[in-house]
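User: For my dataset I need records formatted as: sequence, then structure tokens, nothing else. Please produce one.
Assistant:
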Amino acid sequence: MRVLIAEDERMLADSIAEGLRAEALAVDVVYDGDAALERLSVNDYDVLVLDRDLPVVHGDDVCRSVAGSGASVRVLMLTASAAVPARVEGLSLGADDYLVKPFAFEELVARVRALGRRSRPADPPMLERSGVRLDPARREVYRDGRYVPLTRKEFGVLAELLRAAGTVVSAEDLLEKVWDEHIDPFTNTVRVTLMKLRRKLGEPALIETVPGAGYRIR
């Protein structure tokens, strides 16, 4: 899942990003509304965590733009106001959910994941194929009953391949969904991550390379 955080309190924004990355999400961060609109125009995000009181372009205007664009990104609006009229107004602008500051990080994660499920067809409780079982909630992977410890990126790559249900996923799509915007598009990090993932999953080989196209689960 790929998330954009638009929050002008830099320490808060960076803290949220660090926490979501620890949850195996790909996260980009901007600190004003104009930068948020620019990122949204060039990247496909599943969830936008949007501070309502952004500088340059107000969060309300960002929300209106997203709602009017027809984009599939879901909007979680952050605000300091807990008043019911403020919440109603935020939702009427096109936000999908609303969270009042200060908030518990665990609740933020739960709301982001719930919105992410709504931005695409819902995942089953477990992703399973060819003897591999991946639990998105617990972030656990088993192959033929054997626990497989994975890094966050290895877990993210395997989840995307399992979601594809045997169809080919390109390296570019894996970069888009698992890494953030700071990754070099010409890097070999996808190939290296897949090499390590294959080694951990063991034999028989599970992940197939399709020359010139990408990767798939056999």
